[in-house]
Amino acid sequence: MPLLVGVAPFGLVTGVTLVAAGIPPLESMAMSIFVYAGATMLAAAQLFADGAPLAVLIFAAVVLNLRLVLYSASIRQHFAGLPVGHRALAAYLLGDNTYAQSIAHFSRDSTHGAGDALAKLSYFLGISIPVWGVWQVAVAAGIALGARLPAGWKLDFAAPLVFIAATVPLLRDRAMAIAAASAALTSVLAHELPFKLNLPLAAAAGIVAGALAGRGKEARAA
Length: 222
What we know:
single chain, mainly alpha, 10 helices
C-alpha cells in the first residue's frame, strides 16, 4: 500500500507531462504500457518538447534504464530454474520500487528457501501487478486531464519521493551511502546541463564513488 501511494501521483504527473509535451494521447498511453518506466518517460517527454534529436532521446532512455540491467542480474538468482515465460513476465514488471521491496523481503524472510523460486515469483507478482495496474490507471487519468491541472498542485514532487523511498532501505553500508550521496550531489550540481545529462553523470559518479568506497573497505579488511 505505501508503494501505491507514491506510484499514483507519479503516474498522474507522468500522464500530464506526456500530453503537455505534445505527445498524442494514444501514443502516450502506448508508451506507458510498452516502456513502463516513469523516469524514462518523463525524460523522453521533456527532451521531445525541447526538440532534442532522436539519437539524444534514445541515448538518454538507454542510460536511464541501465539500472534495470543491474536489478535483473541481482534478482535473477531468486527466479533461477523458472520457465522463460515466467522470467519474461518478471522482467517486464521489474521496477525500482518492486525490486527494492522484493529484495528486502527475500533477504529477511526465511520461509522462502533458496530453491523456492516459484514462491518468490508469487511474492514478486503480488507486489508488481497492483503497482502496474495503479500506474496505468494513473497515467491514463493524467493523459485525460492533460494540462488542465492547476499548476499550484505541484504534483511533480511525487517523482523524487518514489525513488527516495525505494533507495533509502537499500543503503545498508557505507559504500552504498557514499554512492547515493555522490549521485545526488552530482545531479544537483549538473542540473543546468542540457538534455538531462546530469542524470547519466550522476549515475556514473555514484557507481565510481561506491566502487572506490567498497574497494577501500576490502583493503582495510585485508
